[in-house]
Design a protein that fits this description.
- The protein contains 28 helices and 18 strands.
- The protein is α/β, with parallel strands linked by helices and about 750 residues long.
- Helix 26 links the parallel strand 15 and strand 16.
- Helix 5 runs antiparallel to helix 6, helix 5 runs antiparallel to helix 11 and helix 9 packs antiparallel against helix 10.
């Protein structure tokens, strides 16, 4: 058993009684005193640390084996004390058992002796009746006489026979022995008495002889025999009392010894221990109170934590709702808190949290609560407030929390967004208020931050729809429901297929396909886009490699990836390995990166990955140009292979002159920079004609082909082996193919 700090107080408790008995030398003789610091008289007032580093400090830390030996010896002393007490108890039990046994045996002997007296009189009575009776009465009297005689002899044999002798050896005194075996012996009297009975019932005896025998029997039963039996009974009773008195003295001695032992241990062992236990218990109670406070409060701000909030909702809020009171939950999230933490440090962040908590506590009553449930999230539960009051309270909180505070001569400020849920009269699940307030907070943050939002039925339905979709996405990945669709990219100058874009689709039910826009946002929240990206790349590359092996003329294929994947430091290496695994050339793979991602303020790693992709031989397209906020200077430093102009710049060019002017300017810019361009969202012939007059673009849009599954895209290729075509997917993908208009075909070179 290794010594530990927790052993200190127990060792001190064990040694204190030994000190009190002043037998310290006994312990000192077991160990080297130079290694042991003396235990102070005031040990009961010392703390656990003082005990450990006082008497047994160095001893326990540096002399583990000696501390184990001391523990064993003290334990042995306690064991011996307990064994002494146990021995006294066992001896008392044995004594009482002997007393009861002797009492029972003497009672049996007394009983038996008393029965002998009764039988002697009974024999004399039936002998008299037999002598004067006639006929059946005489026979009945004889029968009773013989029965009484036999029982009398049997009882006597018990008293003086083998069983009686055993009693004589263990219980009968000399006085009783003299009665049985003295002169005259009781045994002789009994046998002489029964002999008279035998003589009386012998056939042919004269009446005078019978009368003589009857007289002798009555005299014996009434005088000598009866007196001897009475004397035996009294002697047995006296002997029983003497034996009981002796055993009682032994019992009293054992009891006194036991009481003295208990008093001794109580005074010198258990009393000091009880005092120490009481003191330790007080410390334990204090620690429990501190632990309880810590378990229910946030250490940084001192307000309630999530656990205390849960208890409050389960008990107080439920009671308030049952009593007809209204309950409102305000879920508060600090805006820009991470920026303060990153800029000024965690100490500044703690100061912001403490200040926010104190501001919130100013607006709650005794029956209300403020709790911190996360890094920068708070919950306020208030009672009996109308919606107008809650709106004013929320605005006040936003205003007060947003005020800057000074920290180390610098101003720090955050904002906050609030979601509010108000209980309904029929509310049966008060914990649902937290979920509803969280939904409202989510809406407040998504619609601008720094504002308050009340939960509505529409919000909860939308949120539940998102929850269902989250579950369905997870199941979709498990069931392999995500697959790539392919949309053709056409050269406007030659009308030939120059590439494909692989687009993620979700086949939730057979034949029903959902576009990426319907699930990407939810998948990003669940951090599942990485899995979807991997599935799309794996299936897209496999299909592209298959088409290449079939000899289909598909120059290249484009892929889209989530922002998280593009920021992965190992993204380029992983992509290159996947391409090599399919025996493809990296120059046939195009990575499309959104303008909003490429020029994001946190795009440093993305730019590094783009450069590494180009080093591996991949092509990079800037996707959806015109939908974001790219600057001209950023474009000058950007190294991409192609610009994909967003459909928002081309959808109105046929009707809006300003849109055409803007597009012409963009075209001249990239033309001068010698960056190829592809127009997205080309949906009709009018757009094609206008764009063809403007520049030799590449095109991608519904006019040339919708995103198609593998089967439909192969049909599309088959139908357009000699000339381009457009597929109408408005009703059904398969089997609904139309040729491009001949007037556009005339504009193509021969």
């Amino acid at each position: 058993m290794a010594a530990s700090p927790a052993f200190g107080p127990y060792l001190a408790v064990l040694l204190e009684p030994i000190k009190a008995l002043r037998i310290r030398k006994l312990i000192w003789s077991w160990f080297d005193p130079r290694k042991i610091q003396p235990l102070r008289i005031s040990a009961y007032q010392a703390r656990v640390e003082e005990w450990m580093y006082g008497f047994a400090g160095e001893f326990m830390v540096n002399n583990t084996k000696q501390s184990e030996a001391l523990f064993r010896r003290v334990t042995t002393a306690y064991t011996i004390a307990l064994l002494v007490i146990a021995a006294c108890g066992i001896a008392a039990f044995i004594t009482i058992t002997c007393m009861v046994k002797d009492k029972t045996e003497y009672a049996r002997l007394i009983n038996l002796s008393g029965r002998q007296r009764m039988l002697s009189q009974r024999i004399a009575l039936f002998a008299s009746q037999w002598s004067v009776a006639e006929g059946e009465a005489r026979e009945a009297a004889l029968k009773e006489l013989l029965s009484s005689r036999d029982l009398f002899l049997h009882s006597h044999e018990i008293l003086v026979g083998d069983q009686g002798k055993s009693q004589k050896g263990s219980a009968l005194s000399k006085t009783i022995e003299e009665v049985f075996y003295g002169s005259p012996q009781l045994d002789e009297r009994v046998r002489a008495y029964t002999t008279l009975v035998d003589q009386l019932i012998e056939p042919g005896i004269s009446n005078d002889r019978k009368a003589e025998l009857l007289c002798q029997m009555q005299e014996a039963a009434g005088n000598e025999l009866l007196q001897d039996l009475d004397r035996v009974v009294k002697l047995f009773e006296k002997e029983s009392d003497a034996s009981n008195f002796f055993l009682l003295k032994i019992e009293f001695g054992l009891l006194l010894t036991l009481l003295l032992g208990i008093a001794f241990e109580a005074r010198y062992i258990f009393a000091p221990m009880a005092g120490l236990v009481a003191k330790t218990t007080n410390q334990l109670d204090s620690n429990i109170r501190k632990m309880s406070w810590a378990a229910n409060h946030d250490p940084a701000t001192g307000i309630a934590n999530r656990r205390r909030l849960r208890e409050f909702i389960d008990r107080d809020v439920k009671d308030a709702i049952q009593q007809g009171e209204s309950v409102a939950v305000l879920h508060i999230d600090l805006d820009r808190f991470k920026a303060v933490n990153d800029t000024f440090g965690h100490a500044a962040g703690d100061a912001i949290l403490t200040n926010s908590a104190s501001k919130l506590e100013e607006h709650v009553g005794d029956r209300e609560i403020v709790a911190r449930i996360g890094g920068d999230e708070f919950v306020v539960v208030v009672l009996n407030r109308q919606q107008e009051d809650l709106a004013r309270l929320g605005e006040t909180i936003i205003k007060e929390v947003s005020k800057p505070i000074r920290f180390e001569n610098q101003e720090c400020s955050v904002g906050c967004s609030i979601g509010v849920a108000l209980s309904r009269p029929s509310e049966s699940q008060p914990e649902r208020l937290l979920l509803d307030a969280d939904i409202a907070l989510y809406e407040a943050k998504n619609t601008g931050r720094g504002r308050l939002e009340f939960v509505t039925h529409e919000l909860t339905e939308r949120y539940r729809t998102r929850e269902r979709m989250q579950h369905e996405i997870v199941l979709g990945l498990e069931n392999d429901e995500f697959l790539p669709f392919f949309q053709p990219q056409i050269c406007g100058k030659t009308g030939k297929l120059i590439g494909l874009e692989s687009l993620a689709r979700w086949e939730k039910t057979p034949g029903e396909y959902r576009s990426a826009a319907s699930f990407v946002g939810v998948a990003e929240e669940l951090n599942l886009m990485d899995q979807i990206d991997r599935v799309m790349l794996k299936k897209g590359l496999a299909q592209f490699a298959h088409w290449k092996s079939e000899g289909l003329a598909i120059p290249q294929i484009s892929f889209n990836f989530s922002m998280a994947k593009l920021r992965d430091v190992s993204f380029a290496t992983w992509l290159y390995e996947c391409v090599l695994e399919k025996n493809l050339d990296s120059s046939e793979i195009v990575i499309e990166i959104l303008e909003t991602v490429m020029f994001d303020e946190d795009s440093t790693q993305i730019i590094k990955n783009v450069n590494q992709l180009r080093d591996f031989g991949f092509k990079v397209d800037l996707d959806d140009f015109g939908s974001g906020h790219a600057s001209i200077n950023a474009l000058l430093d950007l190294s991409v292979d192609r610009i994909k102009i967003d459909r928002s710049l081309t959808e109105n060019i046929c009707r809006d002159r300003n849109s055409r002017i803007l597009l012409e300017a963009i075209v001249r810019l990239f033309d001068n920079l010698e960056i190829p361009m592809l127009i997205e969202g080309v949906d009709n012939m009018e757009q094609v004609n206008l764009l063809s007059d403007l520049h030799d673009f590449s095109y991608q849009g519904f006019f040339f082909g919708h995103p198609m599954n593998v089967h439909d895209f192969e049909n599309w290729l088959t139908a357009n082996e000699r000339q381009p075509c457009v597929v109408n997917f408005d009703v059904e993908i398969s089997g609904n193919i139309e040729r491009w208009p001949t007037d556009w075909m005339r504009s193509l070179p021969n």
